[in-house]
Amino acid sequence: MTMSYAPLGRTGMTVSRFTLGAMMFGAAGNPDHDDCIRIIHTALDRGINFIDTADMYSAGESESIVGKALRGRRDQVILATKGHFALEEGLNRGGNSRRHLLHAVDASLTRLGTDYVDLYQVHRPDWDTDLEETLGVLTDLVRAGKIRTFGCSTFPAHEIVESHRVADARGLMRFRTEQPPYSLLARGIERDVLPVAEKWGMGVLTWSPLGFGFLTGRYRRGIKAGAEGRAALRPAWFDPADPVVARKLDVVEQLVEVADKLGVPLPALATAFPLAHRAVTSVIIGPRTLEQLESTLEHADLVLDDDVLDRLDAIVPPGTDVYDPNGAANPPWIVDAKQRRRVVRR
Asked: What pTM was computed for the model?
């Protein structure tokens, strides 16, 4: 396996085509710090130079683990983290305001044991905070040397475009990257987010290439989900009586046939797919164990040709979401009916 690399948009940084995601390091995944550090060191030794974490992953524990792993190796790594979500209860503890992000960045730097991060990302849109407020504080953090550049995560295309308009109008720095969900089960971003990111020269780091576990091959039609992992935490997500789950399982069966014809396991097909899109810079892989990392990297040089991609398009048409990959963070006008219906005066 030979790791390949690509420019991170127009930031001037070059990153591996696979990013080591640290979401599973800590209490939410693997609580063994020494084991997590071994995973990180193995990834670096295998050519990965890009690590992505967030302050919310295991309530900061993930960042602490990454910080310990990078002692003596910090200069080898393009380090990214994220902020937005509240880590504790109370007013003004989350969001993309100046007040919160100044605190969040300092706290992340302390946990990571570093003076700066190469890429800082706002983890979700904040519909209550003006984009000028967010871009203004991020610009100031770059000038203060605490972050090298900044990006956004799971932003809709219209909000990305608006952010660039605001940056140009106010003389602020722009979002340089976007981190969206993208997989063979969730292709919706092909309609607008990916073309917009490409137009603006943004790096794109995609997450959940395994579709929240459905593209691991562990969950199949007629096979009862085991009482471990995601199936144990959220059994409703894997209930075949749910029409959405049933549709996922039907698609998985067809994808397994494609993978079998290629002679590779389904996860290899799934992680290779996002990299076939010309706008995608790097795919985030989030191993919980060393075995999972090794298994993924075993097929890291798999490139899907046009015939395979045509077969995949026939199974899940371009721009189609088999399920809503971001249902938990939909904008308020989708969640709250009152925000999309006209007021009827009586």
From this structure: 0.94
